[in-house]
């Protein structure tokens, strides 16, 4: 199996024509019984398995994935990692994720290419500048990095943006989070899979959960396309399909599934070395190391499980892009796609027990799941190993809806969810 | 663009329509005590079915509110029913 990666092994394999690389993880058949089953082999599921083994010594774990690793939203997002939220509970959660991402390449011995190139959130009027100042203050009070930039400072960081005074939305300034950035999303899934596999986790692909087996009201296992698998505890990290699994098991969720679209352009010479987001235009973009512009926007307005793009959102997002940076008007698109995201009423995730004993959920990340992968896995592993919330995940229990303690980031941080 | 059928105006551009809620939810009976769990279920929980769905939509230009049945994977529209009574 896969040995430690280093510059030396890369050089040696380069000289040998790359014929000596071993698979990065095993392809085991499912065993009849595990301590923990994690449903979903995306970033959150793989991170959960990795941290179960690493932090809690629970290694008799199976990750069941209906397709291939990272083939859902983990491979469909725009790779942005940030913690520029408003409420203390959110900052605690997302900043844990940024901190874990900061050391993940070294820890996993797998280059996830986390580039902390910073993120601009543009403000287009004086009232928006006041809201931006409030956001920066909240972020600093919550212990994460944030700066308020004026228009000249924004121009220095991203000169391609539209600074014309007669722009549809003129730029007055921006909030800046310097530790935000982008990472190679496939590598996050593959690195976590390799890390979990090395610690003894069974990663089982092409294994769709078709039913949840309950005995006396307790979930004791799952029926899959590759046979029955039982476990003491089951964790579901299935993003846009959370409601489908909930229906199989018999619990309810406050989730609506929508398509979220993204776009990548033909490769260009470097034009921007940060992430730029304009809430007014509803568009954000960054540039990958390969030169492609990676472009995203808001949710579709029609609930959907169709993993494909469509024209209304394409018009909105690309119209916004060429107003934001008119020099990009002639750039051609290379690809356009969609993932199905699980949106909650308050745009905050749900981590906690379901109404079925023995079955726990990690869902509701909506449009922001990728940035939260290490924290989601870290906290969900804690819940599955101990049966109790970590202090950071407790506010995100589903109980907040009945108790009225919503964490309404959709309203508070004005960030597209 | 996809066309959605408004029961009043006929087929129109999807961007003219607003998704309101899934159809068939009943507000708890407030003449008796309603538990927090029941309120939360009514306000927040969703069926969010994959496949055939029944939803309440509004056609914004004419303000018609109606039930649309469609497939949430193929996006095919299977039919619409106006809430408005015929002749009203």
Mean pLDDT of chain A: 96
CATH architecture of chain B: 2-Layer Sandwich
* C-alpha termini separation of chain B: 32 Å
| Number of separate helices of chain A | 11
Strand order in the sheet with the most strands of chain B: 3-4-5-6
The number of helical runs of chain B is 1
Helix content of chain B: under 10%
The tally of beta strands of chain A, per DSSP, is: 18
Interface with most residues: A-B, 24 and 26 residues
The proportion of strand residues of chain A reads 25-35%
Order of helices and strands of chain A: HEHEEHEHEHEEHEEEEHEEEEHEEEHHH
Q: Give the radius of gyration of chain B.
A: 15 Å
CATH topology of the largest domain in chain A: FAD/NAD(P)-binding domain
Approximate shape of chain B: globular
Percent of residues in helices of chain A comes to 25-40%
Mean pLDDT of chain B: 94
Number of domains of chain B: 1
GO biological process, one term (chain B): tetrahydrofolate metabolic process
InterPro entries (chain B): SoxD, SoxD_sf
Protein name (chain B): Sarcosine oxidase subunit delta
GO molecular function, one term (chain B): sarcosine oxidase activity
Task: Please outline the helices and strands.
The complex is a heterodimer of chains A (417) and B (88).
Chain A: H1 7-15, E1 33-39, H2 43-56, E2 61-64, E3 80-81, H3 88-108, E4 119-123, H4 126-141, E5 147-150, H5 151-157, E6 173-177, E7 181-182, H6 185-198, E8 202-204, E9 209-215, E10 218-224, E11 227-236, H7 242-249, E12 256-267, E13 275-278, E14 283-287, E15 292-303, H8 311-324, E16 333-343, E17 350-353, E18 359-363, H9 373-386, H10 399-403, H11 409-412
Parallel strand pairs in A: 1-2, 1-11, 2-8, 4-13, 11-18
Antiparallel strand pairs in A: 3-7, 4-6, 5-6, 9-10, 10-11, 12-15, 12-16, 13-14, 14-15, 17-18
Chain B: E1 3-6, E2 10-13, E3 17-22, H1 36-43, E4 52-59, E5 64-71, E6 77-82
Antiparallel strand pairs in B: 1-2, 3-4, 4-5, 5-6
């Amino acid at each position: 199996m896969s040995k430690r990666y280093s510059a030396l092994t890369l050089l040696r394999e380069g000289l040998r024509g790359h014929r000596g690389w071993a698979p990065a993880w095993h392809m085991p058949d499912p065993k009849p019984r595990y301590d923990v089953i994690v449903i979903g082999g995306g970033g959150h599921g793989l991170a959960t398995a990795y941290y179960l083994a690493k932090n809690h010594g629970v290694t008799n774990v199976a990750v069941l994935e209906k397709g291939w690793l990272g083939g859902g939203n983990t491979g469909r997002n725009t790779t942005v990692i940030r913690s520029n939220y408003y409420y203390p509970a959110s900052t605690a959660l997302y900043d844990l994720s940024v901190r874990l991402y900061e050391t993940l390449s070294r820890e996993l011995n797998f280059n996830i290419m986390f580039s902390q190139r910073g993120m601009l959130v543009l403000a287009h009027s004086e009232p928006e500048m006041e809201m931006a100042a409030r956001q920066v203050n909240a972020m600093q009070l919550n212990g994460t990095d944030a700066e308020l930039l004026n228009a000249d400072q924004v121009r220095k960081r991203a000169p391609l943006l539209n600074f014309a005074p007669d722009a549809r939305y003129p730029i007055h300034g921006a909030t800046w989070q310097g530790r935000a950035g982008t990472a190679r999303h496939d590598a996050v899934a593959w690195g976590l899979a390799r890390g979990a596999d090395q610690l003894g986790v069974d990663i089982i692909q092409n294994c769709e959960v078709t039913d949840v087996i309950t005995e006396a009201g307790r979930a004791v296992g799952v029926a899959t396309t590759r046979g029955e698998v039982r476990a003491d505890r089951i964790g579901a990290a299935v993003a846009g399909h959370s409601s489908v699994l909930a229906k199989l098991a018999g619990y309810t969720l406050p989730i609506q599934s929508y398509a979220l679209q993204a776009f990548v352009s033909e490769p260009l010479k470097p034009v921007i070395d940060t992430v730029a987001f304009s809430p007014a235009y509803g568009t954000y973009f960054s540039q990958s190391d390969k030169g492609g512009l990676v472009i995203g926007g808001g949710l579709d307005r029609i609930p959907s499980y169709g993993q494909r793009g469509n024209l209304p959102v394409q018009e909105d997002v690309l119209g916004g892009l060429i107003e934001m940076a008119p020099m990009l008007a002639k750039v051609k698109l290379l690809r356009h796609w969609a993932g199905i995201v699980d949106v909650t009423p308050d745009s905050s995730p749900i981590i906690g027990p379901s109404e079925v004993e023995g079955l726990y959920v990690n869902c509701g990340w909506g449009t922001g799941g990728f940035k939260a992968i290490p924290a989601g896995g870290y906290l969900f592993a804690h819940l599955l190993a101990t049966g109790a919330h970590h202090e950071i995940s407790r506010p995100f229990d589903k109980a907040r809806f009945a108790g009225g303690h919503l964490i309404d980031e959709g309203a508070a941080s004005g960030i597209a969810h | 663009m996809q066309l959605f059928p408004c029961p009043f105006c006929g087929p129109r551009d999807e961007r003219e329509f607003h998704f309101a809620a899934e159809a068939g939810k009943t507000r708890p009976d407030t003449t008796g005590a309603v538990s927090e769990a029941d309120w939360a279920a009514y306000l927040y929980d969703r069926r969010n079915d994959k496949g055939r769905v029944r939803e309440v939509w509004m056609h914004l230009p004419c303000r018609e509110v109606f039930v649309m049945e469609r497939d949430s994977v193929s996006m095919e529209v299977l039919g619409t029913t106006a809430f408005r009574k015929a002749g009203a």
